[in-house]
Amino acid sequence: xxxxxxxxxxxxxxxxxxxxxxxxxxxxxxxxxxxxxxxxxxxxxxxxxxxxxxxxxxxxxxxxxxxxxxxxxxxxxxxxxxxxxxxxxxxxxxxxxxxxxxxxxxxxxxxxxxxxxxxxxxxxxxxxxxxxxxxxxxxxxxxxxxxxxxxxxxxxxxxxxxxxxxxxxxxxxxxxxxxxxxxxxxxxxxxxxxxxxxxxxxxxxxxxxxxxxxxxxxxxxxxxxxxxxxxxxxxxxxxxxxxxxxxxxxx
Length: 251
Ligand SMILES: Cc1cc2nc3c(=O)[nH]c(=O)nc-3n(C[C@H](O)[C@H](O)[C@H](O)COP(=O)(O)O)c2cc1C
Description:
Blueprint: H1 3-9, H2 24-36, E1 46-50, H3 54-64, H4 68-71, E2 74-81, H5 83-91, H6 102-125, E3 129-133, H7 140-146, E4 153-162, H8 191-194, H9 196-202, H10 218-227, H11 231-234, H12 236-242
Antiparallel strand pairs: 1-2, 2-4, 3-4
Helix pairs in contact: 2-6
The structure holds flavin mononucleotide.
């Protein structure tokens, strides 16, 4: 155990923040941490957009349907960025379409996601809190239009952060035996039996977004999450294609 691991094992999403700014030096340090993160073939195919404009914040919170998108002291959007390297390549006399395949897309997606998580560890180590905002993909086209994202870019995830004004419980996690395997994938004999304790534990967790009752059992949450479909989210490939990425599917 060390300080870093203690911070990581104490991770909780924070959705309510004190009215206290994150100072410029701290912010710069956090961006340096993101910049120092490993990057697939060192292409750094992601960018970060800091959203400070009040109107844009408001519109994003409507897209995300989450008020803290507007109120979090800092709001970042991590994006896949194939545009920058395509421009560099073009300036070197190559065609603009180099690098528009899905392998490059996923390199950028992974790069952006791990840079974001690296930043989250740093944020939490400084006594601040953060919340990921996958809700930015509720309407990825609207986010692209609002932030004027060029071709070969695509939103990955948003991040709201600042000084916590709430103290949530640690949210229960599934037992590691269900997630960590050796040499091959382990199919469980009875999935409901294997999560029985976890189902019970989840019923002891109160989400601060609705403190009137504990969360449902995990199995029930899975059913409602898998059943529910948001057409704009499930149709995400249409927007990725419109951004200029080429799926190169088999004929
Ligand atoms: C990719 C990703 C997207 C997420 N999107 C949202 C979101 O849009 N809004 C939100 O309030 N929390 C979001 N979260 C936070 C999760 O709800 C949270 O991590 C999960 O419930 C576990 O809780 P904990 O982080 O407090 O342990 C997201 C987390 C991840 C990793």
